[in-house]
Structures are given as structure tokens and as C-alpha cells.
Amino acid sequence: MFIQGELIYLRALEPEDLEFIFLIENDVKLWEVSNTQTPYSRFLIKQYLENAHQDIYEAKQLRLVICHRETHKTLGLIDLFDYDPQNNRAGVGIVIQYEQERGKGIGTEALDLMIQYGENHLYLNQLYANISTDNKASINLFESAGFELVGIKKAWTRKGNQYKDEGLYQLIF
User: Fold this and answer.
1) Longest Cα pair distance anywhere in the chain, in angstroms?
2) Which of 7, 71, 111, 126 is 20 to 30 A off residue 102, Cα-Cα?
3) Whole-prediction pTM value?
4) How far apart are CA 22 and CA 84, in angstroms?
């Protein structure tokens, strides 16, 4: 499965993605945004990849790999999660793994491609994202794609001894 853009393409997960996913899932800096509390083993990720063939209707999620169109370098992941076919909505999340690749339009294009896919192939009515109110880069990304802040969940996530607010962003087609 390839969804083509100008800078990047999105593709389905492959067994060869094990080490890349292992790095992302075990990057402690990302645990706050992914609500992860413990490391993932290679064994668990291998099992996940073995079941990645399930379609979004079975798994209620879709994870695609973001790759550079010219070099084919794996740059990040974009997910649809909590897919609800009854109400035609899903959550969306994105991570660009390498800091030197951020701010180059990769996340913008990946999110735009996923929005188009959700609207034109899954016939979604809306997408939503949960973003910490101090994550300015993600807020800018989602707002530039047309997502609107519809509410703040107060003291929603804990980091150390502090609680952070989380914004709920929606894009209704």
C-alpha cells in the first residue's frame, strides 16, 4: 500500500520495520505523547508486526510508515486509532523520528495524505487529535491542517510530579 505525496509516501508496515518501531516505542521522550509507561520488547513488536495485516475494520487502527520519496528512508509513523465505523471517526497521531527531518514539511504532507485517505477511502466524517497544550509544534501542525481546538482536558496527563492539560482537536469534513 502506497499513498504518494511530493516529498514522502506512506506505506504499510513490513517485518523489516521491527528495529525502527522498536526505537520509536522505546524512546522515553515520546512516551508522554503516546501514553506509554513501559518499554516494548522486540518479541512484542514482532508479534504486532505479524498481525499488522489486519485491516482497519478488524484492528480499529491503521499504522503507516512515512518514507522519503527519493531516498526511501524511513522517517516516522502516522496512525489512525480508535476507528469508529458507526460514527465515521478516528483519532490521528504522527511522529517524525529524526529531529533533523522535522520542520521540512514531512509531517504536514503525511497528515494531509492521511486526511485525504480518511475522507476519500474510509468516508470518515471527522478526525481528532489529543495534543498536550505545551506541544507547540504539534498544535501548529494540526491547526495548519484545519483542526480546531474544541476543548481542554485539565490536568489530563502526568509527567513526573506535574499534570499537564491536553487539547482535543477536531477536523470535521
Assistant:
1) 44
2) 126
3) 0.90
4) 27
pLDDT digits 0-9 by tens, 85-136: 999 999 999 999 888 888 899 999 999 999 999 999 999 999 999 999 999 9
Burial 5-22, CB ≥16 within 10 A → b, else e: beebbbbebeeebeebbb
Query: From CA 20, how far away is CA 26, in angstroms rounded?
Result: 10
Q: How far is Cα 29 from Cα 31, in angstroms, rounded to an integer?
A: 6
Spacing of C-alpha 20 from chain mean position: 15
Say which residues have a Cβ less than 8 Å from residue 11's Cβ, sequence separation at least 6: 1, 2, 3, 64, 65, 67
Grid look-up 502526568 returns: 158
126-162 residues labelled b (16+ CB within 10 A) or e (exposed): bbbbbbbeebeebbebbeebebeeeeeeeeeeeeeee
